[in-house]
Design brief:
alpha/beta, 24% strand, binds [cytidine-5'-phosphate] glycerylphosphoric acid ester, 447 residues, globular, 35% helix
Length: 447
């Protein structure tokens, strides 16, 4: 009996996949098909896969060509499978010619002709209606957004806005492909969505005006300074059937979600403590260090450090207290938040002029999870137990500077694909703004 194996994502199952499986089956007597897991596709940089793994498996099964279906979830698995299942022929489409020659030491390798003029990427691009995005604010993060948007099907930055004409002109000089304007209403007329990356105190108003004008919003954190304002934005987005996303970058990265899932799975028992830190030394003349009202460590990093606490312990903290160190100009250069829950405690620390270890530690009754600095760009975390020799290592995928994950989530939601709201829910975003509001009151009470 000749055993054949092939692999693929088989997203949006099409004629090309069907032909490939048919020809693969004809190469032998028994066909094994490896369907990639979501996690593995993320590792391979495929972040736009639409069908979930069960749907993709089902489509392969329905062809009737597969005698056995397995899940491919890690690099190197092909070599294992070929040996384990005693495979005679490995086959894949001709778009991969040469890429799998290394398997020739284990079995025969056949590159089958690819069906012309059809691909998942093209179908995906037709499903993902291009979302024309306008960037609000042309500061430090805008060029990074442009760079990362290239990795997301359907995300098309077309315009940028800054109220200061000189800044607009400078930005246009570097990004000639964009329409650059200094009138916000003008911007809103030319786009389907905005990415708000302007100073903190302007987020709310820009978001509100966009939502009122039928434009989807992804806004840098904090979305607003009060609970009421954040609620107002979400209500407006729902009323007008628009997507509103708070860009707390860490929330959308695959590693952070995996950590949350491990923590919630009971692996470390009941969660009793969270410590989450984020510091970056800012220049003394930067906005973070000089803007007494809307700069400072909390508004810069508060939403990020609160994220794991709110996600894991929820909105019902019993009390919260704030402790800050202030610069002479009234800016908080370093702060700690202490949360008390009925059955857990949490501390967050952030700073713009104090450096700490930027780690995240989630402690439970059976063990703890440690995500070393910089946990907000999570590439690694560990689970530790009483027996110090027993350590589980996780190395989730993380590409670029991580912005692509939030952009991808945004475009998917606009296209009505996936139930991805769980990554940062309306409720979590509102709780974070409630704490922001309390922090702002605390700050006012001191200065
Ligand atoms: N294919 C084809 N003709 C097309 C499109 C795809 O023959 N018009 C083939 C591909 O060459 C591949 C299979 O269909 O053999 C599955 O394609 P994808 O779902 O795009 O999977 P891919 O990313 O190619 O993964 O470990 C996974 C493998 O490396 C292949």
């Amino acid at each position: 009996m000749t055993k054949v194996i092939t692999y693929g994502t088989f997203d949006l199952f099409h004629k090309g996949h069907y032909n490939l499986l048919k020809h693969a089956r004809e190469l032998g007597d028994y066909l094994i098909v490896g369907v990639t897991s979501e996690h593995f596709d993320e590792t391979r940089g495929k972040i736009n896969v639409i069908d979930d793994v069960l749907t993709r498996v089902q489509h392969v099964r329905e062809t009737g060509f597969a005698d056995q279906i397995i899940i491919e979830d890690h690099v190197g698995q092909k070599i294992e499978d070929i040996q384990r299942y005693d495979v005679d022929i490995f086959t894949v489409g001709s778009d991969w010619v040469g890429a799998f020659d290394y398997l020739k030491q284990y079995c025969e390798v056949v590159y089958l002709p690819r069906t012309p003029e059809i691909s998942s990427t093209e179908i995906r691009n037709s499903i993902f209606q291009p979302v024309r995005i306008g960037i609000v604010g042309t500061g430090r993060i805008a060029p990074r957004f442009l760079e990362e948007a290239k990795y997301v099907s359907g995300a098309v930055p077309v315009a940028a806005y800054n109220p200061d004409w000189n800044e607009v002109r400078d930005f246009k000089g570097k990004h000639k492909e964009l329409i650059c304007v200094d009138d916000y209403d003008d911007l809103l007329k030319q786009v389907d969505a905005v990415y708000i990356a302007s100073p903190n105190e302007t987020h709310f108003d820009y978001a509100r005006r966009a939502l009122e004008n039928g434009v989807h919003v992804i806004s840098e954190k904090p979305l607003a300074f009060t609970r009421r304002e954040t609620e107002q934005l979400y209500s407006l987005s729902e009323k007008n059937n628009l997507v509103l996303l708070e860009a707390v970058k860490a929330a959308y990265s695959p590693g952070f979600q995996e950590l949350i899932n491990v923590a919630k799975s009971g692996r470390i028992g009941e969660i009793r403590d969270i410590e989450s830190n984020y510091t970056r030394l800012a220049n003394s003349d930067s906005r973070e260090r000089t803007d007494a009202k809307y700069g400072g460590a909390f508004l810069e990093f508060g939403p990020s450090v609160m994220l794991p606490v709110i996600k894991l312990l929820g909105p019902d903290y019993r009390s919260i207290s704030f402790h800050s160190l202030w610069d002479e100009n009234g800016v908080d250069i370093y702060n700690k938040l202490d949360f008390v829950y009925d059955n857990a405690l949490a501390t967050t620390k952030c700073g713009v002029a104090v450096k700490t270890e930027g780690q995240l530690v989630v402690s439970g009754t059976k063990g703890y999870i440690l995500a070393p600095s910089p946990w907000w760009l999570m590439k690694h975390f560990e689970v530790h137990f009483e027996d110090a020799s027993e350590i589980e290592n996780y190395d989730p995928p993380f590409r670029g500077d991580g912005l692509r994950y939030e952009i991808s989530e945004f475009v998917r939601k606009i296209n009505g694909i996936g139930r991805d709201g769980y990554k940062l829910t309306r409720g979590e975003s509102i709780t974070m703004s409630e704490i922001t509001e309390k922090y702002m009151e605390y700050k006012k009470s001191i200065h």
